[in-house]
Amino acid sequence: MSAVGELTQIVSRRKKGGVREKHPDNKISLVFMAPWLIGLLGITIIPMIASFALSFTDYSLLAPPEFVGLANFREMLGDTRLHHSLVVTFTYVIVGTPLQLIAALLLAVVLNQGMKGLSFYRSVFYLPSLMGGSVAISILWRQMFGADGLVNRFLGMLGFTDLPGWVSNPDTALWTIILLHVWTFGSPMIIFLAGLRQIPQMYYEAASVDGASKVSQFFRITIPLLTPIIFFNLVLQVINAFQTFTQAFVVSGGTGGPSDSTLFYTLYLYQKGFTQFDMGYASAMAWLLLVIVAIFTAINFFVSKFWVHYDD
Amino acid sequence: MLTRRTALTLGLAVPGLAGLVACGPNATSGGGSGGSDGGSADSGSFRLAWWGNPTRNENTTNAIAAYKEEKPDVTISPEPGEWSGYWDKLATQTAGGDFPDVVQMDEKYLAEYAGRGALLDLAGAGLDTSKFVDGSVEVGEVKDVGLAAINAGLNAFTVLVNPDVFEAAGVDVPDDTTWTWDEMIETAARITEATEDGTYGMTQMGTVQGLFQLWVRQAGQDQYEDGKAGFDAAAATSWFEWAKKIQDSKAGPGADASVEDSTAAMDQSLFGTGKIAMTVAWSNQVVANDALHDGKLTVLRPPSTAGSAAEAQLWYKASMYWAVSAKSANSAAAVAFVDYLVNSPDAGKILSVERGVPGNLEVREAITPDLDESSKKAVDFLDAIEKELGDAPEITPQGGGQFEDILTRAGQDMLFGTITPADAGQRLLDELNSALS
């Protein structure tokens, strides 16, 4: 029997009603969800449970894990590199995310002016989002911001001398990665664009009639009506930023250097697990990160009550 | 318009994403197939992993092809890599129970892998080591395992000189049997002075593990002693003071450029592109470096504190090893291939001395007449220092694999001026001790 035939049967059975008779739907829905379910179980749920169990062990990857209770968590309290990596990551999230959202919003507003070739520009600006997390772009970044890179050559032409190697100086290395993050504003931009499209034109027309300037229209109409979208982007991007790994790994050559200035939390987690053979500790770190991200998300939701306006 | 309800739905989906955070570590323990029977030596397929450079990749690929002609039923999947990514990958593969059958192994990770049962006892598996020179087999032995890895070549620490840069600066190449560490910096500073901007006398060597080890050996200490740090904070401090002098005297590039240079690939490094007169390397790297300079490089002894090569405390290191996975399903074929790599004069001729000078004397004799100029430089250097060698150092204990990272961090902090050489020396010792415990 064809799948379509089966579906028709299910639908007709459904029309007759009755809670018990609905059961077959559930079974077939499992089949349809299977690709996703298998992924969720195999790549997310099971590894999560395993990493939770491993966080209470001393596990070297090469030998079976040994139960050590809370020792890994106690060790975190005194681990200065871990504390440092938290500072690096918080700086990145707290500075990088707002900058990225502002860039995304401004471009979305510009693109929303009904200009010609919108879909082309939209694609062009979205491109960095697709590539920004990739190894190739990170390598490009390292070359561009190197001592002899494109950026310094350009600045040199403008007459600047004694320029640092931006990626190899501990004072500037993190900022080049933050810049890379800001540049990948594409996905929040697309969401903002969709949000802008939904704001009814009549508000702007009414405001124009009343003589409101474009700027005050932006702050008094666009921003308030867009707050749910801003909130959504903020939550999503904060979670994303906490998990940044590729850029830091490639730009610093996997070391988190120079002088640990780009030692992101995830990078340190990786070093602990895979180069120092301490997977138990790394698992414990993963759970700490989960808790931190959860707390940040909870704070975001709590604070949202005071600034997000819903239309209902 | 977005309503509260839809926004909440989106919001609820988001914490779910947070769960992804924890999905990093793949938790399956290293099962794999038992591999107890080991299969046949003359057939089957197995994987071969090594790190290297273009020269080595070509040699190794040729050796695999030659072996296939002898044993057509054997299939070898090569997995070449770069040093920097190799160890991460190997650790990941180990965790996933996906360890390659034959791996190129380094001294600093040997105890790490062998001590945890990942490597096969090659002597027990019947590898012939009878032709090896004295002392060159023992360096692969690990307690409770046996012969965990077999020496793929001998090595010593060298200073590589680019004579073109010396010539451009009008400076003579120093006498390497009498030069001291300070003379090295003075020579380099004169070169920097006499050449155009962006060309330097020497690389920043303060984060080079092998040279650090030589420094503490010349102070009557060593990198490790009885599985613990073998040097004191004073020796480490004097090392960092010397490294700082490279930067302060402009003998070498500044901190920024040095950091960048240390992560660059060999052919893109300052020395590789002809912008540096002197750098340090293990002798097996002579060939690859020489290829970048049309065979013009000169190989010198590293300097000594006493100004006498006889007291330079150099040593022969196993440049790298071959090891076989304890869990290999085809261990017989894998061991037979390792036997070919280290004991066959035919393989020796293909591989030459790129992995170091062969420890197997029969192989060494067979290949010496046909060596090209670059390889001869490496062999001649090893011969020249044979009478001057110090005692062989201990192999790196478990946890010691991190030493180079620790040295790099302390060294960079010191070079960027955030800590003093004395702080760096103390930190080096403290962090090494905590890594070893």
UniProtKB/TrEMBL annotation, chain A:
CDD domains: TM_PBP2. The keyword Membrane applies. It is a multi-pass membrane protein. Keywords: Cell membrane, Membrane, Transmembrane, Transmembrane helix, Transport. Residues 86-300 form the ABC transmembrane type-1 domain. Gene3D superfamilies: MetI-like. The chain crosses the membrane at residues 30-54, 86-111, 123-141, 173-196, 217-239, 282-303. It is found in: Cell membrane. Belongs to the binding-protein-dependent transport system permease family. This is Carbohydrate ABC transporter permease.
